[in-house]
Fold:
Amino acid sequence: MPATPPPLASYVESWSPGPLTDEDPLHPGPAAALSAALDLPGTAAGAGDPVPPLWHWLHFLAWPPRHALGADGHPRDGHFLPPLPHRQRMWAGGRCEIREPLRLGEPAHRVSSLASVTAKQGRTGELLFVTERREFRQDGRLRLVEEQDIVYRSGRAAGSHPRALDESAAPRTEAPWRLELRPDPPLLFRFSALTANAHRIHYDAPYCRDEEGYPGLVVHGPLLALLMLELPRRGAPRRQVRSLSYRLRRPLFAGERLAACGTPAADGAALHIASHREERHATAEVAFA
Structure:
């Protein structure tokens, strides 16, 4: 009879990484590149323009050397990566408070710290939830506070993914705000490059099928979040997003038709990503200033 593995919490009892501080000039180039990749009209991308909500993900990027990557393309080690055996990583969601928008072309400072580490029992085994907090400053003023929730497991669990993809079926929705997209491999490749994401599930189809059990290339969770946040930018262009939260629930795959859907209210909006398979692959809520 195989031995019962130790609880995940035992691996992180003495793990307490300290804060990290770094700087980025916030060059306008990445914002212009993402706007082009997504065919987004009218996105501000010049020096002095405000950074759209969550577009700061295009900055403060880490490019580890090739030998530091694991077989899946993720870094094997990192300051905020918990010391778990056979570590598997999933981005679960996050929150963001925008006190003032960051401005392109102006140097910004970021302080990253470990906010919490919690072990929980999931449907497919034990999970470790790690929350990283990030504070962004420009001109000495705190502009933005973000928390990212990352879920880790030790080893891989069998997923309940479709065996084949229907690339013709469209999501059914009557939401007041709606943005349709069919992500294709070139878009996923460009988004990976813009966010320094070398995870092979986004560009290596044989690896997706044979090693991870997916039916096709996986659409980035952060890309789904950005698409949801595009809705208030278009539907309420005069309103500033003061705070937001989002949750990534079910994966979408290249070739599938998706719709970012939104329902506005007086002080904010409820957002989600739909396909013909799932009504809510991702969800978000925004509050206006």
Summary: The first helix runs from residue 29 to 37. The radius of gyration is 19 Å. Helices lie at 29-37, 185-194, 205-212, 221-235.
